[in-house]
Amino acid sequence: MGALRRDPTLLAALFFFIAAPVLMLARPRGEPRASAQREYGLLSFFDVTVQDEAARQVRFEWSFRPDLEDTEMTCTLDVDDDGIFEESIEDCDGETSLDHSYDEPGTYRAVLIARDRSGNADRAVTTVVLP
pLDDT value at position 31? Predict the structure, then answer.
């Protein structure tokens, strides 16, 4: 123990090899690290409103961060979260809504992916409920 008091390098090495791995394991599984937060945050809003219940027609609407007003965007929309993007909007920064009709009543998850010209992407999800 006397050697530790005289040699701070040895104390630092012990911390590095013993305490640091224990502290890293203390982070709960599944909790994102600081760098794993949303990558770009292009979208500021994504929602859906039912336009006609009987016809099962809805309107999806989205908007981008104000500082991205002059940025060209393309969007793809998966209206039922089945992995197939049914809609593709080339100018989705200028066209910020899309109407869609569902065949059956139910609850659907819709996924919107927006991309800028540099390849940065953002993903947003909303829930559609049709009685």
Answer: 31
Q: Among candidates 112, 120, 123, 111, which has minimal Cα distance to 68?
A: 120
Can you tell me the distance from the alpha carbon of 14 to that of 4, in angstroms, rounded to the nearest whole number? 10
DSSP secondary structure of 108-124: EEEEEEEEETTS-EEEE
CB of 100 closer than 8 Å to CB of 60 = yes
User: In sequence order, which ranges of 7-49 are alpha helices (DSSP H)?
Assistant: 8-14, 20-25
- Alpha carbon distance, N-terminus to C-terminus of the chain: 72
CA-to-CA distance for 46 and 62, rounded, in angstroms?
4
What are the tokens at 26?
A: 């203390």
Residue segments in the chain with a per-residue pLDDT below the cut of 50 = 4, 10-39
Nearest to 96 by CA among 119, 109, 114: 114
pTM tops 0.70, yes or no: no
Q: Is the Cβ–Cβ distance between 49 and 130 less than 8 Å? A: no
